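Tip: read the tokens left to right.
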């Protein structure tokens, strides 16, 4: 097996390898960092390496030994993965209790036993408490790897009992080099993804590009009064709201840039520059700032139980009004 890591993960890997070579692999490792930089991939690669009986140069798993084959077949007795049973839901106390029962037995192989928990912020309070009890008396040769991009959602008690491992934002030139091999729009998508390579990779897909263009056309249609905000709100309800909200905010930022400069650099949506430059002189800059404020508030509100249809209606009606004044 060759080096399976992303190009920006080499120094992270070296750090993890140091744990192994110095025989001080933590009993609970909390891998954290921004969304879309490959934390889970790093955790999985490390898991494979810990379980492999014949690790290769660089510390990577061989992919051929009985342990590697069992892992590939998802039947390794010393590997457990804990994730929410449904996407977006919590990890339950039942799941943690099952895990504790399994961990009370000794590992079956000579090497490590690994438990991968992701996203760790999905541990609900009861599950987190049960988990804490285990961390007070961990079993031998067992490594728990927790992965999260939302450290603030994790109980302080858990954070304090884990060895924190923070992945930094990857080097931009390295990421651009990697991304350019996959898309001609590397700069644009990386900017949109705010430096997050895997998010950028996702943004570069045809489907995503098409969706962004469609939404922008609808945003313009509301401005030009050729479509109704309530109808567009209903359409937008079906899309991931955080992404959509970021798009709208970044269209507004691009419009502000055009209000200040005739040919601004570093546009988020350089591919929409013709439409943006045409629209910019028609909008009232003060109202545009007010609208941006509304978007910032909405970013906080989507984290709550708010009715999303109402939220999009409010945003799109405000946008329509802005363009009418
Ligand atoms: Zn192996």
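Filled-in amino acids:
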């Amino acid at each position: 097996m060759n080096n399976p890591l992303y190009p920006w993960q080499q120094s992270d890997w070296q750090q993890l390898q140091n744990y192994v070579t110095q025989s001080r692999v933590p009993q609970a490792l909390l891998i954290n960092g921004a969304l879309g930089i490959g934390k889970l991939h790093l955790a999985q690669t490390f898991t494979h390496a810990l379980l492999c009986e014949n690790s290769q140069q660089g510390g990577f798993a061989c992919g051929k030994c009985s342990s590697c084959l069992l892992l590939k077949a998802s039947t390794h007795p010393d590997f457990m993965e804990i994730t929410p049973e449904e996407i977006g839901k919590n990890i339950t106390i039942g799941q943690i209790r099952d895990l504790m029962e399994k961990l009370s037995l000794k590992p079956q192989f000579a090497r490590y036993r690994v438990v991968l928990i992701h996203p760790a912020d999905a541990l609900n309070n009861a599950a987190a408490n049960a988990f804490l009890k285990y961390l007070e008396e961990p079993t031998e040769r067992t490594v728990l790897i927790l992965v999260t991009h939302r450290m603030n959602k994790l109980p302080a008690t858990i954070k304090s009992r884990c060895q924190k491992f923070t992945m930094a934002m990857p080097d931009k030139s390295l990421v651009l080099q990697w991304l350019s091999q996959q898309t001609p729009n590397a700069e644009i998508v990386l900017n949109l993804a705010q430096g997050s390579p895997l998010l950028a990779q996702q943004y570069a897909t045809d489907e995503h590009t098409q969706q962004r263009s469609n939404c922008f056309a609808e945003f313009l249609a509301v401005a030009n009064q050729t479509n109704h905000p309530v109808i567009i709100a209903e359409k937008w309800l079906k899309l991931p709201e955080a992404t959509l909200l970021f798009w709208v905010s970044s269209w507004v930022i691009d419009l502000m840039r055009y209000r200040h400069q005739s040919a601004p650099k570093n546009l988020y949506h350089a591919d929409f520059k013709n439409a943006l430059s045409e629209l910019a002189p028609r909008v009232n800059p003060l109202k545009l700032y007010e609208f941006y404020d509304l978007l910032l508030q909405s970013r906080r509100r989507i984290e709550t139980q708010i009715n999303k249809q109402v939220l999009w209606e409010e945003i799109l009606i405000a946008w329509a009004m802005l363009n009418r004044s």
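The first strand starts at residue 28 and ends at 32. The mean pLDDT is 92.
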